[in-house]
Amino acid sequence: MTSPIYTASIPVFQQMLGGLSQVLAKAEAHATAKNIDPNALLQARLFPDMFALLRQVQVASDFAKSVSARLAGVEVPKLEDNEQSFADLQARIATVLAFIGGLDPAKFDGAATREIVTQAGTPKEKRFSGTSYLFNYGLPHFFFHTTTAYAILRHNGVEVGKKDYIGSY
What we know:
Number of helices: 6
Number of domains: 1
Helix content: 55-70%
Mean pLDDT: 96
Strand order of the largest sheet: 1-2
Radius of gyration: 16 Å
Order of helices and strands: HHHHEEHH
Low-confidence stretches: none
Shape: globular
CATH class: Mainly Alpha
CATH architecture: Up-down Bundle
């Protein structure tokens, strides 16, 4: 039997990253069709104190890979965060999808009660059970950044809708 933590994480990350990839493809096509510098979209943000699209995609993919790795009890792979184009972001998403798709579902056995320790960018350590880490920390952050990436593009005239955001399931 597949772990419920696996079922609640990996397929969700795969679906949403697939949707994000499709939204980015539409954004690139939009920029080409409208003769818009792609960097105008990649650097767009909803408000000055928020991350730009490029960083939103990086952070969303970081949550997908790091949450998955920690729940599986494996080392979190490091990505360089040096993407500068839509093609680079697509490659990053493909890398993360390959990583999480290659995780053995058996590694998630016991993940619900596995202790997860993070430092979330501050010196203050946070401790979670696997269940709390996924549902109260990992998924909310992941959805925030995927939603914000979608909203940036929609706000900038890219013709995407809920079906694009949700992806294939």
